[in-house]
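Subject: Sanity check before I submit

Could someone independently write out the structure tokens for this chain? I want to compare against mine line by line before I put it in a report. The sequence has 159 residues.
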Amino acid sequence: MRMRLVLIALVTLGCVESPPDDTGLDDTGSETDTGVDSNAASDLAAAQTLWATAGLEDYDYVLEWHGMFGPDMAGPATILVRGGTVQSATYTSDGSPVTADFDARSIEGLFAVIQEGLDAGADQITASYDETRGYPTYTYVDYDLEEDDEEHSFSAAGL
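---
Independent answer below. Compare away.
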């Protein structure tokens, strides 16, 4: 009888769930995904430095916003920048000027989108940068993983 109680106790103890730890590591010792890359701020700073070193004040590129946007807000659109300021933006589909709803930004403005997400403590930020010039090629910002439809992303190409 005593052996049976010990065996039941051991089986029961084996079924008790361990409390979660706060180490940020999974069972294999690897980092768990918190949504925001721990290097996001330093990656942004390095990309901005690379962009500044490229010294481009006059350039064209294609910008497309992704998310819960209508076609007028999403693009894609060709952005013409002169002297660091957006001079024009036209839809790539037909060459017509973008509507006031389209958020035409310079590359510095795209860096600002990432910085705004970092400053606001967004739950998830993913950013990729051009290896040569440093401009953001893809960025995804989700301010609250529990909310729907407040996340957005963009892609930039053709520089």
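---
OP: Matches mine. For the report I'm noting this point. The first strand starts at residue 59 and ends at 66.
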